[in-house]
Specification:
The protein has helices at residues 18-23, 25-33, 37-45, 47-51, 58-66, 69-74, 79-88, 93-101, 105-113. By secondary structure, the protein is an all-alpha fold. It folds into two domains: 16-90, Dioxygenase LigAB, LigA subunit (Protocatechuate 4,5-dioxygenase, Chain A); 92-129. The mean pLDDT is 87.
Length: 129
């Protein structure tokens, strides 16, 4: 039985808690495997075949193949593990974060330098201004 999670009502936010950790265990272990050069070479040579060596869900595999980091997070991925996929692809963390917001790397950089995204739409449901 899941514990009460008062943080579940933050729009657009997935908290990496124990439940998410269990859900994404194999996805995150796959990501960690990319720390080894031989595994990166094998993955890039045939991504689907390499993913099929891992007991991940089909949704997790498809999210990785699409490089859809938001789907990966929803499927239990942790951004610090998922960064290994970006590094394997030669992407910076900033490029990855930009892709998750639908922004270009430059637009994302400008937004963060200006103080980050606006609070509007990112409050707890029911929280007043």
């Amino acid at each position: 039985m899941a514990l009460d999670k008062p943080y579940k009502d933050i729009p657009g936010t997935t908290i990496f808690d124990a439940e998410q950790s269990r859900k994404g265990y194999h996805l995150n272990q796959f990501c960690m495997s990319l720390m080894k050069a031989d595994n990166r070479v094998r993955f890039k040579a045939d991504e689907r075949a390499y993913l099929d060596e891992w007991p991940m869900t089909e949704e997790q595999k498809l999210a990785v193949l699409a490089r859809d980091l938001n789907r990966c997070i929803a499927a239990g991925g942790n951004i610090y593990f998922l960064a290994k996929i970006g590094a394997t692809d030669g992407k910076s963390f900033q490029q990855m974060a930009g892709s998750m917001t639908g922004m270009s790397e430059e637009a994302y950089r400008v937004m963060m330098i200006a103080g980050g995204r606006a609070i509007e739409g990112n409050r707890y449901l029911g929280e007043s201004k």
